[in-house]
Amino acid sequence: MGFKVAVVGATGNVGREMLAILDERKFPTTDVVALASRKSMGVEVSFGDKTLKCKALDQYDFSDVDICLMSAGGSVSKEWSPKIAAAGAVVIDNSSAWRYDSDVPLIVPEVNADAIVGFSKRNIISNPNCSTAQLVVALKPLHDAAKIKRVVVSTYQSVSGAGKDAMDELFSQTKAVYTASDIETKKFPKRIAFNLIPHIDVFMEDGYTKEEWKMMAETKKILDPSIKLTATCVRVPVFISHSEAVNIEFENPITPDEAREILSRAPGCLVIDKREPGGYATPYEAAGEDATYISRIREDATVENGLVLWCVSDNLRKGAALNAVQIAEVLINRKLIVAKKKAA
Question: Per-residue pLDDT averaged across 128-135, rounded?
Answer without folding.
Answer: 97
